[in-house]
Amino acid sequence: MKRSEASIILSFLALGFLVLLRFAGARLIVAAVPVPYGAGMVSTLGVLIVIAIALVIDRLVRVFYWDGHLRRKRKRNTPALIEDILTIALVVLGASVGLFLEAGVSFAGLLTASGATAIVLGIALQAVIQDVFSGLSLNFDGSYAIGDWLTIYSDHFPEPLYGQVQGITWRSTFLHLSDGRRLMVPNHQMTSNPVMNHSRPAGPKRLTVEFPVSNDFAADRAISILLGEAYRAVRDRPLMQEPEPDILIDRFSSDSTIFHVRFWADPSEVNPQVAQSIMARAMHRGARLHKVPSPVTQVQLVPLPDDHDTKRMEARDALGHVPIFKDVLNVEQLDALFSTCILRNLAADTVFIRQGEVGTSMFVILEGATRVSILAEGEARSVAVLVAGDIVGELSLMTGEPRTATVTSLTTVNVLEVTKASIETLLKATPELLDKFGQVLVARQLALKKIATIKKHEESEEWEIVTRMRAFFAGAFHDRR
After folding, report:
1. Which one, 128, 262, 303, 453, has least CB within 10 Å?
2. Sheet strands side by side (includes 391-392)
3. pLDDT tens for each residue of 286-308
4. SS (HEC) of 390-404
5. Please, what are the domains in the chain?
6. Which of 11, 93, 85 is nearest to 47 (CA)?
């Protein structure tokens, strides 16, 4: 800013010097320089004064509007082409006014005299003129601006080019490509080829990842698994949670069903190719986890696994990873607990936990996605989306407290229900598990509620939860006595 202020001061000093020469030194110039050159020099100074005034105006506009208002306050860069056009227009206007005042020459006369020259130059510089006028149309219609992310489709490129606009000059648009290179594209190419602007309107844009699944696998189950993994992927930036992801069947082939996983990302935060790669990795991870088969073209001479046994094995593995159990129960105890749990398949839009109701079980999400919402001031508000590997209802299972939220299946969902009777069976055999469950549960609740971990507060919270658990499972200890 100091440099800009200095340039304004110098512009005013130069203007003042010219004014001084023109009006205070006119007699000295006429007396010292032979006729008619002296008068011509004075008239030239008059023209230069008007041009200097135009340049001072241009400098003020650049400092206070282009740089001060747009670039600093509104964070928008003005293309150099627009700034140069204003400068040229002001200089031409200043020269025209100066010539008219000093010599009586009209601007119309200048245009008529230069007509033949303009025709010759126009023929010789057709490509240049095409680029210039293309640049003017791009700037005036606002097709894109500096900072926008574009994809350019052209037969001149082996594949569409994706990059960010770094500058717009008289002849070219400069793109910073995703691989770090800088591409100069003639402006007429930008107006004669399709260009996709990812930055306008501002905000997230929908992207798609194609994922094939073998025709032997149920499409409804594939949608539940893939959508659950999509919800897991959008929990973290740079992908967007809103709008929510969805899954569509795009087409069928002889050996596969092609799914389109649709989600949203903001191109100002992440390259769309990177965002698609993040989602593709999530789909691949989920498919491997749930053993979703890929399409094959050769004949497989191996027996297919029993679907029921596979689901039970996956459920047993998921139970072993539940935070409440994995650090408390040994393998035998986990097997005993699993033998009393219930595998359930829930249709989409099924409410299986309702806020305010008394609960005596928890659920381990095995496949699909569920929405957790709470009722506040008479209005349901979504607070989370749970997917495979997540658990819900653990506090009601352990203490019998009313449900604190409503949980609804977004897709077809497979869950493992752990009941009060299952826990009572464990406590009858090993009563000391109660205290261990209490310690793990209070740690989880403190983490979820983001309560400061002050030792005294932890001990008080643990004692309160264990007391509630002991009262809830009183039957197990009463039978033991």
Report:
1. 303
2. 342-346, 413-419, 361-367, 391-392
3. 999 888 998 876 555 555 555 66
4. CEECHHHHHHCCECC
5. 2-113 (no CATH), 138-197 (2.30.30.520), 205-289 (3.30.70.100), 310-480 (2.60.120.10)
6. 93
